[in-house]
Design brief:
29% helix, 290 residues, 43% strand, 2 domains, Immunoglobulin-like, six-stranded mixed β-sheet, alpha+beta, Nuclear Transport Factor 2, Chain: A
Length: 290
């Protein structure tokens, strides 16, 4: 009986040591290794295994994606359906690490998905940025390349119904707007009709987890829209067909205001945070009228 008890204790000790060693190995993964392991599990069809490399409150930004230009997913519960849909549609992910500095990993990626295969645009290519803290991905920002968007956008338009032309707005034009940065993105709830001339911009950053935040307004060439704009949010920025007419930077839990002269036409809003230096939200077009 005593011998059997000793054997049980030895087995239990070995199992505990293996667990500790495994945990220690995971903690020792570099940010680059964490990203590549996450991708490896996705390519193996292991949704939960891939999600294990994300923090519970991780946030994902997909920029340059029609029709709105940006999709945001917060936390594993929102990310899981996206990952499951990908696996169900024979998702394939190729990732090449471009740089890995401290907690920030930058990659170039290609993806295949049954939908993009059917549209005959696969693979789509992306410029991706990850923030990794304590062995977990906290931020994943994926921006489709403008070359891929040039193929994807018209192919998608053929299979998606066109958006109805909005009715003429009865909103009263305003000369002041307030933008709030919270929950990892920015929000604007005011009128989309602005009055030409001096425009006052109030910015409130209630988030505290980034070193810097910013709000910018841009004008675009007539043949570009918000989807094109968000696909251009990687460096160099802004694109040659866009013009940044206003930017206001501020710190965490800070409020700032500024102004600029708004000309008649269309305006677009893009919000930013750093680190990593990425776009975290957008709005537009605003119509600027006399």
């Amino acid at each position: 009986m005593k011998t059997r008890l000793i054997h049980i204790m030895i087995i239990f000790t070995i199992l505990m040591l293996n667990t500790l060693v495994c945990t220690a190995c995971t903690d020792r993964l570099s940010p680059e290794e964490t990203v590549l392991k996450m991708v490896e599990r996705m390519n193996a069809g292991d949704v939960e295994g891939s999600l294990a490399y994300f923090a519970d409150d991780a946030i994902i930004y997909f920029a340059g994606m029609p029709p709105a230009g940006m999709e945001i997913y917060r936390g594993k519960e929102q990310i899981r359906p996206v990952w499951k849909d990908s696996v169900d549609n024979h998702f394939k992910w190729e990732v090449e690490v471009v740089s890995a500095e401290k907690q920030i990993v930058t990659t170039q990626a290609k993806t295949w998905h049954d939908f993009t295969r059917q549209l005959e645009v696969a693979p789509n290519e992306y410029s991706d940025v990850y923030e990794v803290k304590n062995g977990k991905i906290t931020v994943y920002d994926s921006v489709i390349t403008q070359e891929s968007l040039a193929k994807f956008k018209p192919a998608l338009a053929k299979v998606m119904p066109a958006s109805p032309t909005p009715a003429t707005s009865s909103e009263t034009p305003v000369s002041e707007v307030t933008v709030t940065i919270s929950d990892g993105t920015c929000g604007y709830n005011g009128p989309m009709i602005l009055k030409a001339g001096k425009l006052t911009v109030n910015v409130n950053a209630t988030d505290r987890d980034k070193e810097k935040y910013a709000v910018s307004f841009l004008t675009l060439s007539a043949d570009k829209d918000i989807v094109d704009l968000m696909a251009s949010t990687t460096l160099p920025y802004p694109a040659s067909w866009s013009n940044m007419v206003f930017i206001k930077e501020l710190g965490p839990n800070e409020s700032q205001n500024g102004s600029f002269t708004a000309a008649e036409g269309r305006l677009y809003l893009v919000c930013w945070s750093n680190p990593p230096d990425i776009a975290i939200g957008s709005a537009g077009p605003f119509q600027v009228v006399p």
